[in-house]
Specification:
Chain lengths: 386, 84
Amino acid sequence: MLSFIAGGITHSFGLYLIPVTEYLEVGRETFGFAFALQGFIAGAGAFIFGAISDKYGSGIASFIGAILFIVGLVLFANVGSSTDIIISQCMIGFGASGTGVSVTLGAVGRVATDKNRTLYLGVVMAGASAGQFIILPISSFLLQTFDWSQSLIYLAILSSSMLFFAFALNFSSKSKSSIEGTNQSIKEALIEALYSKSFILLTIGFFVCGFHVTFVAVHLPAYISDQNLPSWVGGWALALIGLFNIVGSLLFGYLGDNGSKKNLLAILYTLRGVLFLLFIIIPINELTVLLFASLLGILWLSTVPLTSGIISVMFGPYYMSMLFGIVFFSHQVGSFLGAWLGGKLFDAYGSYDIMWYACIILGFLSALVHLPIKEIQVPRLQTNSG
Amino acid sequence: MEIFISLLAIILCWVWIECFLIFSYKVNIGYFDDSYLSLSKFKWIIRITIITLTFLISIYMFLFQPNEINQVISMCFNLILNNK
């Protein structure tokens, strides 16, 4: 529910672009910059909140995150200058990292058993994905009914329900791994992960996920529009990505519990590469675009339960939030580059061809990067269990 | 036409999911531990999810004008840099 609400609200901010910039009489680049900064901070904060979550409990981390998120929303509702937009978005970015997937995945990962962990992580991701599509019409309705400032206050009230869910998240402190605790310090856990070749490969692979996902989300509607397809295709394409993203998270979550997660990730990235290749080879029409969107939806964020599942297998669930926070930061860097390079190369060459080829190559490279990953416990855990 | 093409895409993708599940089961046969959730139960969960979401999304898409929904969804996927 935390990821559902926070994720849904942050994805609705695009709606406020026009009313806020018109009210402040500022350029859209200020809003764009603040938005980009928010995403970056959410990625960087995921590591910090992940560490707080692992050390002091997921409930505390998400409670602090929820407070920051609500304060950020109230500040955003009362902006008076460009600086205010940036400050409020930074606050929201930090809040989103506290209530985001790294904290919730860690909490659920600690509670779940080895047999069903990846499916549970898939359910969390499916919930977060659903939030993006359920909160969106609510935000749109509020914006049409009230003025933009008032509608943000209502969203802040909605966000206050996250405080309740933050308390509920304390259940993870009763989990086996939390009760057993660990003798390992945060520093030791970080060194162990950063010296692990498999962890580095996983981090590199997840960069590609961010690159693909954000490039498609940001530039696909413009690409479709360039192909002179009817206007409804862009909307349906993104809606189908959302629909099958939920299904894909469950699907790969379930399969991850019943097979090799790293092999599934390699298959997933290969399928992405093949899909991008087919998309630029096959003639574009309404059906091929919607089929591309649906299939891409299945492969959209299905990487998350598998990636976080591998972290849990390798290092155990205790520091899962913090370690996933590091991997997630790499995802966010990929996201930034996917969005930025897409626009930059389109401006330079007037087409997305280079980006599509980059997506194909990166997809196959990422698949190769996942193959040498050793999906086994680190020596410390092997010694403990032995 | 709009709903027909969209439903066709959903059905084709659904078929792909069913095939992928069967393929994964065949490949991992022997390793497949479905003691806590059987494959057939999971398939039904997936089917019900797809049907429910298709229904909800269809209603949602028809509540808005195509242009409006395009604008709303696009903007919410951080399209702001493109709209400069």
